[in-house]
Design goal:
mainly alpha, 5 strands, Hypothetical protein af1432, 57% helix, 32 helices
Length: 697
């Protein structure tokens, strides 16, 4: 039963009891008092979107025991009718593709031939696992595909090749909770062990090469399902379409991704990045980086990385379907993604995000709406959206919704670009920062934008996996800010040349054979600056060292992508592109330097306290003003005037989204209306608005 999701188990039980989803929805609505339509429940069952308390309630309604499985005990054995119910359900929902074996077929595994003893004694002493390790996966992938193409219908065997007669269940099953994982039954320990799907496939490929025959149909289907394809990943489609007229003259020779570029740089949201903090808030210097200059640097580095990786895919023949046109498209997409990756960030940098999250944690239990606290009215995911408020999720919301007066679809960018900027393809309730999986580090979309997320991922066929280009964008972002922070810290006087050199000496002592001697390069550049007679050889050395380091890190990221190409395309890679390279250690070193010398300084702390006061005040006043907006209650004079500050653009977007929604959903959207407005502010505007509202001249 572990192969079935909770939603599938519910449908099996409903089928047995002769109940409909509509009847179950009505009972749930009666018990909870919350509106629950048949359509809504059907969608939640399909997505398996339930909290544990919801599962327990449904199990109670269906008079079933609950142990994270409602089909327990004697009822756990699926009848042929149950199997047909599940298969029909999966095909209707598009979860079961053509060629995937049915649940009935999966009860039968293909018997494997016994490994014949080797004639040579030394080979007899080697285990299967030892032999398999010597067979590289890459060398057998082509052979596996050839075998798949010419395979015949598989015969029914009496023996389960993985478990034998004594075990009744299959020895390989999809993981019940961890995406991208399977569970493999170990006959020696009689326990299930977790393994990534791709690791399992690699192990089976090695066994297949050794045994000389194809695996079962289930394995073949998993392998095919896992690989994403560039053709769909680079989708040029838009939510509203391109707007092309059939008889229009072809005077525009730009690709769809080049059109995205011009839409971005022509937007007010992009221009506002020039007055948003990167590291140093409210800084008067014209040298230190803003969000705009940072985004331009990320755009440039991401494009370069895309060109390098695209060329590497072509040269190595890593993907036979990958073309030069795709390489060009990748470069254009990454160039655009770099421009908008921070477009949703609030004023005052990452501290602004922290301040907003902190405000909701403190205030949601205190604020009242119609004699109830907000945390009692909002659903768990609604609350988590605010507790985990994230600029990345706001970026998706901004470019798809908040340019309403221009287009109800926002900037109406291509699906490929939109998917690339979704760094974390999980909701706020699925965030697990300590899981080790980078996709679960933060949330990627708000509940209000869940349908948009699903539409994007359905078009690109990424599901809940990261888009491959997201890894490249993230590498460019990390590379840009960690090297730039060092330069800004030096210019602002937080970090000296000699202090930086000593930090690199420590790193070099830890990793003497890294292939990148940062200390030697820094000394050589300092000496070159002296020889050239530059006025400040320290500044010359550090700025040029950063250029050298960026080149080295680009190379590391390129190697990281190609070394993990199969895992990335399978959606199972859980780390960043620098993982396992010296680039990872170098990046950690630069980040630690910036934190110790800059981010933990008193000057930064003082500025952050000022920023917290500004954002706290603005959030207090704006939230109070919108609580009863769009309700029967008339607003007082002050609240109506405060509400007038919010642009018509955002109000129109709210009205469009709020149509037909419940009272709780509208309240949630009104809170988002405030965060939309605040995130659209520049540093200077937020400061000026705070001063104006407090009568400070």
């Amino acid at each position: 039963m572990e192969d079935l999701t909770f939603g599938e188990q519910v449908k099996v039980v409903l089928s047995r009891k002769g109940m409909t989803i509509k009847e179950l929805a009505e009972i749930i609505e009666e018990k909870t008092g919350m509106k629950m339509s048949r359509q809504n429940l059907t969608q939640r069952l399909g997505r398996d979107n339930f909290q544990e308390q919801d599962m327990r309630m449904i199990a109670s309604i269906l008079d079933c025991p609950f142990q994270l499985s409602i089909l327990g005990g004697e009822s756990a054995e699926l009848t042929p009718a149950d199997l047909r119910t599940v298969e029909e359900m999966r095909r209707k929902e598009g979860k079961l593709e053509d060629g995937e074996p049915t649940l009935e077929e999966m009860q039968i595994e293909l018997p494997l031939e016994e490994l014949k003893p080797h004639e040579e004694e030394e080979n007899q002493e080697r285990t299967i696992e030892e032999i398999a390790k010597d067979i590289p996966i890459s060398s057998v992938m082509k052979r596996a595909e050839e075998e798949d193409a010419k395979r015949e219908d598989l015969s029914v065997g009496d023996i389960n090749p993985y478990t034998g007669h004594e075990y009744q269940s299959n020895s390989v099953r999809m993981h019940p909770s961890r995406i991208g994982y399977v569970q493999v039954y170990d006959r020696r320990t009689h326990k299930w062990k977790d393994m990534t799907e791709w690791a399992f496939l690699g192990e089976q490929e090695r066994k297949k090469a050794m045994l000389g025959r194809s695996m079962c149909r289930r394995f073949i289907w998993i392998k095919r399902r896992l690989s994403m394809e560039w053709k769909t990943l680079l989708s040029e489609k838009r939510m509203r379409g391109s707007g092309k007229k059939q008889n229009a003259k072809k005077s525009d020779f730009r690709s769809e991704f080049e059109k995205d570029y011009h839409r971005i740089i022509g937007s007010a949201s992009f221009r506002r990045l020039q007055d948003k903090t990167q590291v140093f808030p409210l800084d008067q210097s014209d040298f230190v980086r803003t969000r705009l200059t940072h985004s331009l640097e990320v755009s440039s580095l991401a494009k370069s990385l895309g060109q390098n990786i695209g060329e590497a895919i072509l040269e190595r023949g890593a993907d036979q379907k990958f073309t030069r046109k795709m390489k060009e498209d990748i470069s254009h997409i990454l160039e655009c993604a770099g421009l908008i990756h921070d477009i949703g960030n609030p004023p005052f940098g990452h501290f602004g995000e922290l301040a907003i999250r902190d405000w909701f944690v403190r205030k949601l239990p205190e604020l009242h709406y119609k004699r109830q606290t907000l945390d009692m009215i909002l659903s768990p995911q609604m609350k988590e959206d605010f507790y985990h408020f994230e600029g990345n999720a706001q970026a998706l919301r901004l470019v798809t919704r908040l340019h309403y007066l221009v287009d109800e679809y926002g900037m109406n960018l291509t699906y490929a670009l939109l998917n690339t900027i979704i760094k974390y393809p999980v909701s706020s309730t699925q965030v697990h920062p300590d899981s080790g999986n980078i996709r679960e580090k933060k949330m990627g979309y708000f509940l209000a934008d869940e349908k948009i997320f699903e539409e994007i991922t359905q078009e690109t066929k990424t599901g809940n996996c990261r888009h491959p280009l997201t890894y490249i964008l993230e590498a460019a972002d990390d590379l840009a800010y960690k090297t730039a922070d060092i330069e800004d810290a030096f210019v602002k006087g937080f970090l000296s040349y000699h202090a930086f050199k000593e930090e690199l000496v420590c790193l070099n002592e830890q990793y003497p054979d890294s292939g990148f001697d940062g200390v030697l390069k820094l000394k050589e550049l300092y000496q070159r600056g002296q020889e050239k007679g530059v006025q400040n050889p320290e500044a010359y050395a550090i700025k040029n060292w950063i250029i050298r380091a960026q080149g080295f890190l680009i190379d590391c990221a390129t190697k990281g992508f190609m070394n993990h190409y199969e895992e990335i395309m399978a959606g199972t890679f859980q780390r960043d592109l620098f993982h396992g390279t010296f680039g990872e250690k170098l990046m950690e070193c630069l980040g630690n330097i910036a934190y110790r010398y800059v981010f933990s300084s008193r000057e930064i702390y003082r500025m952050e306290v000022k920023e917290a006061v500004i954002l706290d005040f603005l959030m207090d006043r704006m939230i109070q003003a919108v609580l009863y907006y769009d309700t029967d209650r008339e607003l007082n004079a002050i609240d109506s005037r405060v509400l007038s500050f919010i642009s018509d653009n955002y109000k129109k977007a709210y009205s469009y989204q709020a149509e037909g929604k419940s009272e709780a959903e509208k309240l949630y959207l009104r809170l988002l209306l405030v965060t939309d407005y605040v995130c659209g502010m520049t540093d200077s505007y937020a400061k000026r608005l705070y001063q104006d509202m407090n009568g400070i001249i």
